[in-house]
Amino acid sequence: MSPTIFSTPVVNTLLRWVSIIYLKLAGWKVLGELPAQARKSVFIAAPHTSNWDLPYTLMVAFSLRLNIYWMGKASLFRFPFGPVMRWLGGIAVDRSKTNNLVAASAQAIMDAQGALQLIVPPEGTRSKVRYWKTGFYHIAMAAQVPIVLAYMDYQRRISGLGPMFMPSGDLEADMLKIKAFYAPFKGKNVAQFEAS
Fold first, then answer.
1. What is the model's pTM?
2. What is the number of domains present in the chain?
């Protein structure tokens, strides 16, 4: 994985304090912390209903001293924004091409020398979807790392890290538990999130 804003000295420290101050002034609370055994992990990012999710996610990541990478649609990475998006931890996903994103993502996690948290929005889009994509689950299984249930609730202005979840291999049963955790959370555009 290429270096990001989270691994850039001085800039990282400065943006951490800016993030903490901004979130506090905006009335947000950042809750939870990354367990030691989840230094390498897959994060679920839900609800994902707005473009505002990205800047808030970055600020929460700075506040919690995370080293995140996140998946975004390829159009976000078009010129002239590509280098900036990659420096912010972005990984372009081209939905029009069939590729083995799960295997490549799992390998990148396993090959990382230090901590690495890969954020995957299960909805795959900001639009309302009925079924969650399960790529995050398969990446965690392949890399043999835990899933961290990260959340952002605009209604209560809370964001942070929920419980760590080790996938059992029983996708259906595990997804029921994961979705039950997310049911109370409200995205910025409430009508676009469904965790049932």
1. 0.86
2. 1
